[in-house]
Amino acid sequence: MTETENIAHSNYDVVVLGAGPVGENVADRTRAAGLSTAVVESELIGGECSYWACMPSKALLRPVIAQADARRLPGLSAAVQGPLDAAAVLARRDYWASDWKDDGQVGWLESIGAEIHRGHGRLSGERTVTVTAPDGTQKVLTARHAVAVCTGTRAVLPDLPGLDEVRPWTSREATSAKAAPGRLVVVGGGVVATEMATAWQALGSQVTLLVRGKSLLNRMEPFAGELVAEALTEAGVSVRTGTSVESVTRENGTVVVVTGTGDRIEADEILFATGRAPHTDDIGLDTIGREPGSWLEVDDSLRVTGSDWLYAVGDVNHRALLTHQGKYQARIAGAAISARASGAPVQADPWGAHAATADHDAVPQVVFTDPEAAAVGLSLAEAEQAGHRVRAVDYDLASVSGAGLYGDGYRGRARMVVDLEREILLGVTFVGPGVGELIHSATVAVAGQVPISRLWHAVPAYPTISEVWLRLLEAYRDN
């Protein structure tokens, strides 16, 4: 018997590569439709979000935000002036990361009838995945209908000489560290950089934030980055924009950073939050004539361009690098795979059951800094670049009664971008304490293309921060 003949073979309707939230949701939808489904994972079931991103980062940030909110309230502020109990915060973080054990996630996948294959999965031809287990044994999984690539992304480190010896943090180390470093340099100006600067500064680190560009959060409206930068500076973070990193070394345990202007900064740890790359470099794309390490282009049903069996769902297709958007795509992809498998019609027209239309028009995001920044849809600049005739309507959130009651000295801003041809909203941005809970109302308005004339009849409860909706509509009407 040959070595190939010794390899076990199994057939399924669907094979899912990657068991993060995206892969789990694809499996859930295909299993709900009665399709046999295998899920392949080389790390922890639950993926990046559960152990190194969404869950641990928000567990670190929640006490920081709660304390900041409490300090804005007379009668309570005096009681919360001391430092956070870092050990308790980290212990709660560990709980929300399930102590980096995936028993619960395994149990859930098994409960829906998906079969889990531990090991590194690689495409080995059309509709075929070869799984190499930790002990080196292999098995071949064949998919009758679809293979869904849900392998996500990995952190990108800059090409700096000797960086490996420095042992830099990426988002994984930043969210799983066991103690606050005395001094932390954060490189980057996006979501991970601003959130981790917020968290670790509050937990006792002296944080320096180095930003190559001129502003923070440059994918949002400019005022979002401005307000966050202002608050970080007031909290004690040294924010340096227009600053590049020329070299990084570790000398006697100390990280030494030399900037483009020749400044020398010493720290205990350095975090690079400078981008993500697709986790497709070693999944066998070359065996099906595609470039290893590339983003996978898909149609709105999440099927890879030029294929009738390969799907790419979540971050790996580069449409929207957000967990909630990836889970949305997974629901769409699972439904599309199931429809095609059964021979049912595929509703792939915009806003159809098998079209991820929201990826283009209504992607929401919250940055959990203090203040929070939340946005959905297009910014003013994006709307203008797309050729829409638009008008931006701004309002000072501090002027809303509910915001003033939320906390003394409230600072924030809201903007809605109005399509003047159709009088619908193309985008909405809120910045201020507590605004993350406002963004779903904006998402409904944008995704639903609700006419402004109808929004007048959506009455905000008084006195809440959501009263800003009324003020924005009044500003649009009166100017």
UniProtKB/TrEMBL annotation:
For this chain, the annotated S-S bridges are C49-C54
Q: What is this protein called?
A: Dihydrolipoyl dehydrogenase
Residues at which NAD(+) binds: G188, G189, G190, V191, V192, A193, T194, E195, G275
Q: How is the cofactor bound?
A: Binds 1 FAD per subunit.
Q: Does the keyword Protein biosynthesis apply?
A: no
Q: Which UniProt keywords apply?
A: FAD, Flavoprotein, NAD, Nucleotide-binding
Q: Tell me the residue numbers annotated for binding FAD.
A: K58, G121, D315
Per UniProt, what is one GO molecular function of this protein?
flavin adenine dinucleotide binding
Q: Which residues form the FAD/NAD(P)-binding domain?
A: 12-324
Q: Which cofactor does it need?
A: FAD
| GO biological process terms held by the UniProt record | 2-oxoglutarate metabolic process
The record's InterPro entries line, in alphabetical order, gives:
Class-I_Pyr_Nuc-Dis_Oxidored, FAD/NAD-bd_sf, FAD/NAD-binding_dom, FAD/NAD-linked_Rdtase_dimer_sf, Pyr_nuc-diS_OxRdtase, Pyr_nucl-diS_OxRdtase_dimer
As for family, the record states: Belongs to the class-I pyridine nucleotide-disulfide oxidoreductase family.
Q: Which residues belong to any copy of the Pyridine nucleotide-disulphide oxidoreductase dimerisation domain?
A: 363-469
